[in-house]
Amino acid sequence: MTDANAHTDGDRGIDIDRETAPSNGRVPLAAPEISPTAIDHVQSVLTEGQLADGPPVRRFEDEFAAFCGTDRAVATSNGTTALVAALEAIGIDDGDAVITSPFSFVASANAIRLAGGVPVFADIDPETYAIDPAAVAEIVTDRDDVVGLMPVHLYGLPADMPALLDIAADHDLFVVEDACQAHGASIDRTRVGAFGDAACFSFYPTKNMTTGEGGMVTTNRDDVADGVARYVNHGRGETGTGSYDHIELGHNHRMTSLAATIGRIQLDRLPSMNAARREHAAAYDEAFAPLPIETPTEPDGRRHVYHQYTIRATDREALAATLDDHGVDTGVYYETPIHRQPAYESVSTAATQLPAAEQAADTVLSVPVHPELSDRERRTVIDAVRDQYK
Ligand SMILES: Cc1ncc(COP(=O)(O)O)c(C=O)c1O
Fold this sequence. Notes:
By secondary structure, the protein is of the alpha/beta class. 37% of the residues lie in helices and 12% in strands. The protein has helices at 36-48, 55-68, 79-90, 107-114, 133-142, 161-171, 222-231, 257-288, 316-325, 355-363, 375-388; strands at 72-76, 97-100, 118-121, 146-150, 174-178, 186-187, 190-191, 198-202, 215-219, 302-303, 309-312, 364-367. The strands form 3 sheets. Strands 1-9-8-5-4-2-3 form a 7-stranded mixed sheet, sandwiched between helices. Helix 1 packs antiparallel against helix 8 (257-288) and helix 8 crosses helix 11. The longest helix is centred in the C-terminal third of the chain and has 32 residues, at 257-288. The chain is globular. The two termini are 22 Å apart. The chain binds pyridoxal-5'-phosphate (PLP).
């Protein structure tokens, strides 16, 4: 099994023929692919010497906002800084409670703590792995210190945003979508990124699109977009008295022009890369249907973009070992739910019983579904899983 957030060494370069890709190596869980066009464009940026924040970043922001259907987008240095900047821009007071998922990469809850808030964990819906609106409703009935919701669109499947937005409206809560794993996913044709007060994306190499490291906040709120832009640039703002006016405390969490240039080409390719992920997922759904494992669900109206293709097996360790014998890499996202992480021992809200998250942590296993997967590699994955249950 592969470390959930380890850098992949599966970058095998460009132009892989999907039928004849070499089968002598292992089948990697991720294989980020930077096209020759992106390399050419980066070369031009390098030649022009425009390396840090600059016009390519503004273009990438505009194009990403248009893709998500939002008024604004602000680029950041990674998905974590996007989440922190969004929360800082919305404004939470020290100790304010924000409901999020215990079954996510730790960055989701860390961002709440880094912004001064307290993460409160709602258990997940075992079918979708996203926070269960019923669990959220129970928490907001019990506590009066909740100011916002941070649902996570895990593995590329949107959380139940209509139900969560209803709860938020009833209790006057903000909503920040953690869309770090769900670029291009949608509900009834509205793309994630456009549901909450803000949404945050990661462009880490294993994600559905990459800039190396990078992040983005999308929003329809000008105050939030302007606040994020200030926060990632040392609070620098327009006061009319000079270009080094720092009107509030901030960080340097800016994106580079090099990253934005890669991102613009990746964004052009995102629909076809997501289509390839969906095609692999459909083949797995069909092949695994007769086997004693649970395959991912895609509720009506929701479009999954399969950042991960995650199955559930009661014999997970044995299945992973069989896949390993066949040269197939697998991953467990996430073996330890956030509320059980050592870094959360001091967080009182972590002392909660969250059976659905814990059961998911014990049974999930992700298999390769990235767009560079060749037909032969896909067959290798299918044969390996079948071998376990023959
Ligand atoms: C759900 C989720 N949230 C936040 C992040 C943080 O993004 P980054 O690694 O770009 O900081 C990630 C990245 O793995 C993620 O998967």
